[in-house]
Amino acid sequence: MKILKAALGAAALAAGLWVSAASAETLRVLAWEGYADPDWVKDFTKQSGIDVDVVFVGSDDEIWAKIKGSEGKDFDVMAVNTAQLQRYIDADLVKPWDLSKIPNQKDVLPRFQDLSKITGMTRDGKVYGIPFCFDSIGLIYDTDKVKPAPTSMSVLWDPQYAGKVLAYDNGEHNFSFTALTLGIENPFQLSTDQFATVKAKLLELKPNVLSFYTTADEALQIYQNNDVALIWANYGQQQLKAMQKAGAHVAYIAPTEGSLSWLDNWALTSGAKDPDAAAKWVNFLLDKKIGAELSERTGFGNTAAASSNANDNDKLVWLESVEDPLKRSDLWNEIKASQ
Amino acid sequence: MSERAAPAGPSALAPWLATIAAYVVPLGFVLAPMALFLVYSFFSVDHGSIVFSPTIANYVRFFTDPVFLPIFWRTCLLCFTVALLCVLFAFPVAYFLTTLRGRSRYMLLVLLLVPLLMSYVIKIYAVRSILGGNGMLNRALLATGLIDKPSMLFVFNLNAVLLTLTVLLIPFAVLPIFLSLERIPKALRHASADLGATNAQTFWRVTVPLSLPGTLSAMSFVFVLAIGDFLTPQMVGGQSGFTFGRIIYSQFGTAFNWPFGAALSVILAAVVILAIRLGGRLESKHGGAK
């Protein structure tokens, strides 16, 4: 009898817990590691009474698979970058935000104030993304070998650094930054002529390149065992900090012609159960204290508080989806294959 | 009756189950994926999504585009050189092993195979820190005064790929050569000596011909492993050491052109099968020791 009672009690308790978990408001968040730290989640729940269920992702494709797979119904809010947001809008997987519910957006850093100025953030006057986290893709240079400090990516072509340049193995970005260096207005939509010009320029870069790297660790190891002066820094400030930590004498610049930069935004899924709760979450995160913590913990820039990632006058060019990724990748292979 | 039938049931089924299991593994995990590759190689890609209507465009592109064939031949030549070098280095080692007796022979063999237990990536990293412009090799050469500034002869180019692949693949060449040398009956060598042959004559006219099957299978083995590798060229090849494996890799990674990548893989698989057949054919021709 005792056992039966205990079992019944446990069952009732479990049922009760289950019911309470289901009835309470739960916000389902899809985010990158570092965007929804446990202490923030805890504070948010305490403040708003809204439970948060966070799922972390590892790649853009994973986000797409998760959101597209459930037609937006499995999550309420997600973090997605400017280049990716377009295809979610095209596929009706996101809904516009009601900015009046996110008052903190009014107090963000100047460059994030006017969302219509950030390409791809708005469509038909409606706001689809709230900027949250960013970093530039700049240039790391060895302070002992490169004097004076460079100001432009054009230094990568300087013959005195032949064999001392580490480039990144990605056709899409390489075409974009070379286009910027050549002064092409829109590096993401190249015409056939512009493609030819940029390709010729990239072929000229090859003799200066020691190797093309893919991960930040790899770049650091090559730097330690070779005479490297310049690194095209795909991993931005994070990469700089890791190198300095390892004892390298290096510094970072954002080139004056504009540096490609990624920008992650909070977007509201079309299947969001409670848009107001999602707005509360975003508003909560657009806080100066949390922004500073985000930058301190991840090394990325935040939109609420000033960080070392960008000065107000740095020209950041937010990444957009490019005209033809396949063409860029094919041309990049041709460049690598040429002797 | 039922008591008798019951034990008969499983024992009658067992061979069937064993047969099914024996077929399921190679069919399901080897042949089916390869067939899928073949099927995919006849599709195409449009704006990031695969078009499922048959076309031979991928193969036409491989043979007509000026980018791919030169890289393909260069890669084949590179891997053939790697195979040749591996065998040249492995043969003396394997021969030395057969001269050892008892425990020391197998201890040394195991020591030679220990590198195979280590992660491939770690080994490439290690080689890279040896080969770098300020790497161990260059520093050693500088210290001995043999060169007065770091040599870039083997830093991030095709030479580096050749050297790294050879170093990493030698253990795979030692084993088959050792096995074929070990199988040569001692009596044959003694007979050769009895008939007045010198040691060198015995080596060249008895030992080497009889070890050819193992040597050739070692060569085709190393060739196959080298040609399928994309990581080594990616990590030590720099801007000039571009290989076929790297092109295939890029089709699946950044390009998202799976059908073209599949077509290139099918071509690579054809070369690999050819290399294995060739190794096997020559082997059976020279396989006198059996």
TrEMBL record, chain A:
The keyword Ion transport does not apply. Coiled coil: none annotated. Keywords: Periplasm, Signal, Transport. It is found in: Periplasm. It comes from the Bacteria. Residues 1-24 form the signal peptide. PANTHER family: SPERMIDINE/PUTRESCINE-BINDING PERIPLASMIC PROTEIN, SPERMIDINE_PUTRESCINE-BINDING PERIPLASMIC PROTEIN. This is ABC transporter substrate-binding protein. It comes from Kaistia terrae.
UniProtKB/TrEMBL annotation, chain B:
It is found in: Cell membrane. Residues 72-279 form the ABC transmembrane type-1 domain. InterPro entries: MetI-like (IPR000515), MetI-like_sf (IPR035906). The chain crosses the membrane at residues 12-43, 71-97, 109-131, 151-181, 202-227, 256-276. The keyword DNA repair does not apply. Pfam families: BPD_transp_1. It comes from the Bacteria. Keywords: Cell membrane, Membrane, Transmembrane, Transmembrane helix, Transport. CDD domains: TM_PBP2. It is a multi-pass membrane protein. PANTHER family: INNER MEMBRANE ABC TRANSPORTER PERMEASE PROTEIN YDCU-RELATED (PTHR42929:SF1), INNER MEMBRANE ABC TRANSPORTER PERMEASE PROTEIN YDCU-RELATED-RELATED (PTHR42929). Belongs to the binding-protein-dependent transport system permease family. CysTW subfamily. This is ABC transporter permease. It comes from Kaistia terrae.
